[in-house]
Design a protein that fits this description.
Layout: H1 2-17, E1 25-26, E2 33-34, E3 37-40, E4 49-52, E5 60-61, H2 73-82, E6 88-96, E7 104-112, E8 120-125
Antiparallel strand pairs: 1-2, 3-4, 4-5, 6-7, 7-8
Length: 148
């Protein structure tokens, strides 16, 4: 419950900062808008399968490999998270259930800070350790005893 309250508070603060953002999902090949998009990609699949709100119940092959930001809507969305981009800011959310160790959920909220930009994305995923920290975590040695 504490984590949920923290997430709600963070989203509330973020929504005040990004009140003008027009959140939307991109279609399979990055063209066209959708209310929501689901991507399933197995470990050996390059493109994965995509389900769009515009065609619910109709899984489609991904338009391009997920590693190709020019042809895959999810890859394009994650470009600023996996590579340095001065105009992209993101907040990573991770939660591992204490009582059920097999339950893991996470998300990334991505906002463009480019002048004149009006876009943002919220991606929920189940990939442990994503996104990787761009810098290492450090703190004073005295804080280790306090659980940091």
């Amino acid at each position: 419950l504490r984590h949920f309250k923290l997430i709600v508070l963070s989203l509330s603060i973020l929504s005040n900062i990004t009140v003008s953002q027009n959140l939307k999902c991109s279609g399979n090949n990055g063209a066209g808008d959708a209310d929501w998009v689901i991507l399933y990609k197995g470990p050996t699949q390059a493109n994965g399968k995509v389900l769009l709100s515009t065609a619910p119940g109709n899984w489609d092959n991904g338009a391009a490999p997920l590693a190709n930001p020019a042809g895959h809507s999810f890859a394009g969305s994650l470009t600023g998270v996996v590579a340095d981009s001065p105009n992209i800011k993101f907040l990573a959310i991770r939660k591992i259930s204490i009582s059920f160790h097999a339950i893991y959920d996470a998300g990334v909220i991505i906002v463009s800070t480019a002048p004149g930009a009006n876009e943002g994305k919220w991606i929920v995923h189940t990939v442990p350790g994503f996104p990787a920290a761009k810098t290492g975590y450090n703190w004073p040695a005295a804080e280790t005893a306090k659980g940091h």
